[in-house]
Automatic annotation (TrEMBL):
Annotated source species: Leersia perrieri
Record protein name field: Glycosyltransferase
InterPro entries in the record: UDP_glucos_trans (IPR002213)
Domain of life: Eukaryota
Molecular-function GO terms, alphabetical: quercetin 3-O-glucosyltransferase activity; quercetin 7-O-glucosyltransferase activity
Amino acid sequence: MAAAAAVHVLVFPTPVQGHINCMMHFAAGLVDAGLHVTFLHSDHNLRRLGGAATAGSPRLRFLSVPDDHARGVGDLLELLRSFQTKGSVAYRSLLTSLVRAGDNSNDGFPPVTCVVADGILSFAIDAAEEIGVPAIAFRTGSACSILSYFSLPRMFQLGDLPFPAGGGGGDLDEPVRGVPGMESFLRRRDLPSQFRSCTENQIDPMLQYLIDVTAHSSSVRALVLNTAASMEASAVAHIAKRMRDVFAIGPLQDMFPAPAGAASLWRADDACMAWLDGKTDRSVVYVSLGSLTVISREQFTEFLSGLIATGYPFLWVLRPNMVEASKNASVQEAIEEARNCNGRVVEWAPQRDVLRHRAVGCFLTHAGWNSTVEATIEGVPMMCWPFFADQQMNSRFVGAVWKTGLDMKDVCDRAVVAKMVREAMESAEIRESARTLARMVRQDVADGGSSAAEFKRLVGFIKELSTTNK
């Protein structure tokens, strides 16, 4: 424990909810292993967390760097580029001070000896190495999506890309051959959403950013993935061929609880749990499209009408301004209609508690990676309506590979919503597949399982880097 106490890891996520959530559980695991951890937020998010960011172990603390940008999906690339300029200067200054002598605050933290930065913040990895601190990349998305970014050159070579111009990109059900290990089931529509705008001469700016940071990962000391062998062994193996080292250590959400309130930027409506208590077993549809998805009024109406048509009670997470023009009277009236039709609408929910509740029968989700692994852990059937980025890949794995749910991408129609919700709620085959995968994942994260062993190896790797660097 004495050697571990001298190890101090700076954990730096991208300042959006899904990335913070995953990397907060990772930080909790490092603290549990006896290491000191500084968790680096943006100024905006640290203010938003308030007192919740002071809880936890005396070996865990929260600091921040400037970030003045909004969190909408359309602002993500601007946010990331801002971090490369204004944020990176503050980050380098802070890291330098933490390396030289801790922070001189007499709180018992030794100097920083290692950085684990979000893999899409490549500047944070480069700056740490330039200062003399060994750095590791952590990618919070699925291994299958990361492999697709690596595979872009091969997809162009084989003719998978670009999609035909006009007509919505040609036949979106055309097979994709260029992502190794996925040739038998991957279609054009299953690639990350930005692939659809690829042409011979132009690539979507956000996709180009992701391709660049993924390529950058090949040069880092190691890549950490929040996944399990039972979920993505093939994708991890193909990624490992391109890396110096890879650690598949998840799902972290089932391994290390985060400090209360420290991982969520929204205050959960815990009263919904009492509402669930009043429902019968597996009778409720849980609906959450994540922290970034924005839907049109028409899509909102289709979802709502489809949910009501099933006759099942539903718990719907509807963030403020998630629906375009959501202050419009017709939207508010529709929300009231939902409440009158055996539905409950909340701005945010304690998702893990909801998913493990006996009353929840299925999860209508955007298939973000955190939501996907959380539902997988609890054995809850999913109905996926992916919005962007890796969600398209994740939903294909749910529907075609693991068979733990249904994939409704590219469709938002009330009749389809109702049909698929009923199937997800009532299919014995889907429920059994979900339970089977849940058992396998729990074996991965249990003592002696692959993820538990990889996490232990990662802690040893970090200790060795910290000692060697000294």
